[in-house]
Specification:
single chain; alpha/beta; Rossmann fold; seven-stranded mixed beta sheet; 11 strands; about 30% helix; about 25% strand; globular
């Protein structure tokens, strides 16, 4: 029953996200960027793990570029079987297209352990303001979050926020949700 509700929510919210106008998307991305760079955890983070956004997701490109300019060490995930491994990047120019058409660090990029990461930016499809989230259903980020000790941040357009996300025992929350308005 919960699985059906999760699927319905994913479908409904993805359709809304795809229908966002370019102007709304840009405005909300800018609002999210302001909120992100104002986080005290950003100021103190030495290493940040991001996701490389796809076309209709909240964009992480500017967040990554500014973080690199600010001297932060940046990690991006690469899909390896059922897990994510984290590779360090120095710029956004030489990313490769991996599984699910996701941009990943180039092969041979230095691999890092998330134990030294204090700030993790997590993709999501649907979320609530309590930090409950739904991704695409593969569980990659639930597995990452289950052992993560730092602050995790979900980025969402306003159409992605619902009053309550249905959860199961393996679903992991993010610490904070930054919403464009």
């Amino acid at each position: 029953m919960i699985q059906k509700e999760k699927e319905r929510l994913r479908k409904e919210v993805l359709a809304k996200r795809r229908r966002l106008s370019p102007v709304t998307s840009i405005q909300q991305n800018l609002e999210i960027e302001k909120k992100f760079f104002a986080l005290p955890e950003y100021a103190t983070a030495k290493t940040i793990a991001f996701y490389a956004s796809k076309s209709d997701e909240v964009s992480t490109d500017n967040l990554i570029e500014k973080s690199l300019k600010d001297g932060k060490r940046i990690l991006l995930p690469r899909i390896m079987g059922r897990d994510l491994i984290w590779g360090e990047i120095k710029n956004m120019r030489n990313l490769e297209i991996g599984e699910f058409a996701v941009r990943e660090p180039p092969r041979g990029a230095p691999v890092a352990n998330l134990k030294k990461v204090s700030l993790l930016v997590v993709p999501l499809v649907v979320c609530d303001l309590e930090g409950n989230r739904l991704g695409f259903g593969s569980g990659f980020y639930d597995r990452v979050l289950s052992g993560f000790k730092g602050v995790s941040v979900g980025l969402a357009f306003d159409v992605q926020v619902v009053p309550k996300v249905p959860t199961e025992e393996w679903d992991e929350r993010v610490t904070k949700v930054l919403v464009g308005e």
